[in-house]
Amino acid sequence: MAVPKADKLGVSVTREPSLMTGAVPSKDWMDTPVEFKPGNFCYPAKKSMVEYHKFPNPRDWDPMADDWKLPPNWKEIILQGIKDRLDKFRSFKIFMDCCVRCGACADKCHFFLGTGDPKNMPVLRAELLRSVYRNDFTTAGKILGRLAGGREMTFAVLKEWFMYFYQCTECRRCSVFCPYGIDTAEITMMGRELLHLVGVGTNWILEPAANSNRTGNHMGLQPHTIKENIGYLCDDIEEITGVKITPTFNRKGAEVLFITPSADVFAEPGIYTAMGYLLLFEHIGLDYTWSTYSSEGGNFGLFTNNEMMKKLNAKMYAEAKRLGVKWILGGECGHMWRVLHQYMDTMNGPADFLQVPKSPITGTVFENAASTKMVHISEFTADLVKHNKLKLDPARNNHRVLTFHDSCNPARAMGMLDEPREVIKAVANNFFEMPANTIREQTFCCGSGTGLNTDEIMELRMRAGLPRANAVQYVHDKHAVNTLSCVCAIDRATLLSLVNYWVPGVEVCGVSELVGNALVMEGEKERETGLRFEPLAGEGE
Amino acid sequence: MKFADFLVEKESAILEAWVDQVLGQYPAASVPFFKGGKDRFANPLGHTLRHGLADLFTAVHAGGDNQAMTVALERILLLRAVENLAPSQAVAFVFGLKQAVRSQLKGLAVEDLAEAWTGFEQHVESLALLAFDLYMACRERLHKTRINELKSGRYILSDGAVCPSALMRKEQETVTDLQTTSNSCSQEAR
To answer: What percent of chain A is modeled with pLDDT above 90?
Structure first.
């Protein structure tokens, strides 16, 4: 009897389509079809959501079916969509033309590192769209077709786009390594825009975008709910610190409008970050207000199309104008800051009706926000720390051995690398960096950004988050790190799941939670617990 | 040469063959990177597999201590458990060790092969059982992670207060339930 090979002992272990993506390794990538299976795609957008946004082709459809119920002329729509975007966005045109396929980006993507699927190499993911561009929009491609790297737009190509443009979190790590500075995130953005033209999108993105458009935040929380929830957080603060805080809402004439992700006022562990904000503003006596209408930092338009992004971003400025504030302070959010720093100015700016942000406590003028008029809470807090305006007891964070995850957008899209670290070092005593090639500009994504944070693709999320978790594991083993801090709401939600799986024993927190723990408030009682009612070091042990 | 000496002498060749087998299951275009990338942070998957298999080999060689094997296996199984493999596929790599050893035995005279092979095989078999337990533990951990996400309120971020994905899933489950019910009814009818 022939000895069975080990790889045959399992069911179809090798040389068959990857169960994750359907990729077949032995063929050229262009000839490798994708296969949708439960667990490798996000649920498609509901008909009602597509209708709400007045997007094309609302219908119920199933990615696993052979018929996606596309409009009969879907191919023309896509090609016209590419043409329109090439005319409108110079960057898109350049990114389509200038890649020399050097491969510098190939092994930098967390999706590639976690799945091993070649189409998750950024160069190849971009090639999915670039090949169609070559075929229909370049002379060489029109004449030579596949020989020039071109290929016709077919249903199989469309399926590939839906698969792989939703296996990219637009984190832009690959762009750091590209010698031409190609922003692969923008290629994914274009890919998703084009898919929406024929009614191919995911519900997890379109529904929060609809909620945000309608009620001002992803969760569809109405004004009284937001006020009530922040009230509960104030009750907890009073119980922990003895200090009563009464924030204001929609108050006209406040100096500062504060906008943060709605998850910060509703979901763990973001609510502890919000408690940190509340304590900080009380501590320095900031003249600020929350808004119950512009109650979302996140902008799922960034994951949909540029018109939606512009519309959702404009709401923040409309509210700032309505309330007559001088400038906007933004909370710990991720992609809000990419929209702010890279797109706001050309979409809705300059915000001339506001003033260049100036800290009322230190007098620092935030020249970096001269046009957008919006300052990040970590920049604001680091400035307070630098000027010794905060009374701090870092020992109250002694129960935490910390490391810091640079959230992709604040790090790579706005270049905010040192401010959160300055804050952490001021408010805590135990801080250890993860390895150099996993932080700062080279930070690894949580693996679940850009609307991929949904539980139907949990395995995929865990694989994409492997490089990040692997670095956390290292500092956990080496320095007994027990807390992963970050400045992004999606991170706070997704990193917790990530470490629960890969590195149990590590918690996730926002930087402002650490600030709230350390702040010595006027008239406070002796702290026995941290903001999540956890015992402090030396207490209750 | 004794079998134990053979394992020491051929350790690197055996490991190479085993690593090749396991990495060979990933898409061909990606294998050179997973095999070649030495930086453990730039190539976490390749590093985890290579070092996990090496530790496992050492543990088996040292007499199959359960704790040492568990530590070495866990990192690998955490990977395998999220790769959407059938359970049998996820643990099949263990048996690859036998083939890797056999491939290096060719043409060599090992005095105590018959009796030593029996002992070696027993280690590999217990390793396979342990791997299956760990695979299940990893899957369990994954499901708990998913449940925790729902219970903590983070589901609002990941599944929506009005929970579009859950609603859709519910619809799909209802359809599946109906199909299952109708299938079992028709089977009973037969």
So the answer is: 89
Encoded tokens for A495:
């990193």
Whether residue A114 lies within 8 A of chain B, CB to CB, comes out as yes
CA neighbor of A259 nearest in space, from A274, A244, A269, A271: A274
Q: What is the largest CA-CA distance in chain B?
A: 70
Place of tokens 């134990």: B4
DSSP A400-447: --EEE---HIIIIIT---SHHHHHHHHH-S-B-PPPGGGSGGGPPP-S
Residue B174 is predicted with a pLDDT of 63
CA distance between the termini of chain A: 64
- If you ran DSSP here, which 8-state letter would residue A339 be given? I
Between A184-193, A261-270, A374-383, A466-475, the lowest mean confidence (pLDDT) is in A261-270
The pair of three-digit structure tokens given for residue B143, joined into one six-digit string: 């499901």
pLDDT in tens, A487-539: 999 999 999 999 999 999 999 999 999 999 999 999 999 999 999 999 998 76
| Residue numbers in A near B26 (CB within 8 A) | 25, 116
**Distances in Å between the alpha carbon of A189 and those of A79, A137, A498, B18?**
16, 19, 25, 41
Residue A455 confidence (pLDDT) above 70: yes
Q: Report which DSSP code applies to A344.
A: I
Contact criterion met (CB < 8 Å) for B89 and A10: yes
Q: Is the pTM of this model over 0.80?
A: yes
Question: Do B141 and A504 count as a contact with CB atoms less than 8 A apart?
Answer: yes
- HSE value, Cβ hemisphere, 13 Å, CA-based, for A318: 11
Closest Cβ opposite residue B164 in set A5, A204, A460: A204
Per residue in A267-289, pLDDT (tens digit) is 889 999 999 999 999 999 999 99
Angle at B134 between CA B61 and CA A117, to 5 degrees: 95
CB contact under 8 A, B83 and A13: no
